[in-house]
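Page 37, continued from 36.
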């Protein structure tokens, strides 16, 4: 290739700044010089490998009775019902993993928080309080470590927050992971845990009801396997990939469900409010 002109050099520098989005850049000089071009691989005949399922939580069009005819009056009635059924607010879900606990305990009651686990829960409670959010609901798994974590967090929140227990949020094995984990094979539990954790997802993950006019903020204090599965399901990622996600103790995972049904992951396993010496995951 011959020497590059000033224009070509600037073009190459610009291409370098753009990075991996460019498939190729070709410059030929001399008598057989060809046109140069840059192509974004994702803009040329792009087809999503997986399309977003808008009806994942029953969108308004699927629950409003279809039109009986194309008459203007019938069309107006249908549109009015459709508008009334539409969500108007955002549901914010904060998924909190319990703090570090005594893994040597043989029963759930013996699997209490360690001293470090109580510190982690307290720091997370302080962090949640500092967000200056009006919390609507605190839901906690009925397992001991989640109950203790939630109790510590609640000390930092408004006294009038509604608090509930939920057995559906207990720890379990949601679905066989991919890739498989050789040393972890709880196959008998999948039949029981999978249906329960799926039911928990359906209970808490949905668009705001049409009568809700303000955004809501819900805290779910539960467990790593449950949260990881929820994240995959909410984002419509392959759920069997849940075990590839690592979550710190007392971490904050924030998911927002928009009125149009889109789901936004705002933070995952956030423990930035803790000093490194307090951060653990196992």
């Amino acid at each position: 290739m011959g020497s590059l002109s000033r224009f070509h050099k600037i073009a190459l520098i610009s291409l370098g700044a753009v990075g991996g989005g460019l498939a190729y850049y070709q410059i030929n000089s001399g008598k057989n010089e060809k046109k140069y071009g840059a192509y974004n691989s994702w803009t040329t005949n792009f087809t999503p490998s997986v399309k977003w399922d808008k009806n994942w939580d029953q969108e308004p069009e699927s629950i409003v009775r279809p039109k009986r005819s194309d008459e203007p009056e019938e069309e107006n009635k249908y549109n009015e019902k459709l508008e009334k059924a539409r969500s108007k607010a955002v549901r914010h879900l904060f998924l909190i993993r319990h703090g570090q606990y005594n893994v040597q305990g043989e029963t759930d009651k013996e699997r209490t928080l360690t001293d470090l686990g109580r510190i982690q829960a307290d720091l997370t409670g302080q962090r949640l309080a500092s967000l200056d959010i009006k919390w609507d609901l605190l839901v906690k798994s009925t397992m001991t470590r989640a109950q203790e974590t939630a109790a510590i967090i609640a000390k930092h929140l408004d006294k009038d927050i509604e608090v509930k227990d939920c057995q559906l949020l207990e720890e379990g094995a949601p679905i066989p992971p991919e890739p498989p984990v050789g040393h972890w094979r709880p196959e008998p539990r999948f039949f029981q845990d999978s249906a329960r954790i799926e039911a928990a997802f359906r209970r808490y993950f949905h668009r705001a009801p049409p009568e809700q006019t303000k955004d809501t903020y819900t805290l779910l204090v539960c467990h790593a396997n449950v949260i990881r599965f929820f994240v995959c399901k909410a984002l419509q990622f392959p759920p069997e990939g849940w075990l590839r996600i690592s979550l710190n103790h007392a971490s904050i995972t924030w998911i927002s469900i928009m009125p149009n049904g889109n789901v936004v992951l705002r933070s995952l396993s956030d423990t930035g409010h803790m000093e490194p010496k307090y951060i653990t995951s196992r």
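Residues 96 and 221 are 5 Å apart (CA to CA). Flag for discussion at group meeting. The two ends are 56 Å apart (CA to CA).
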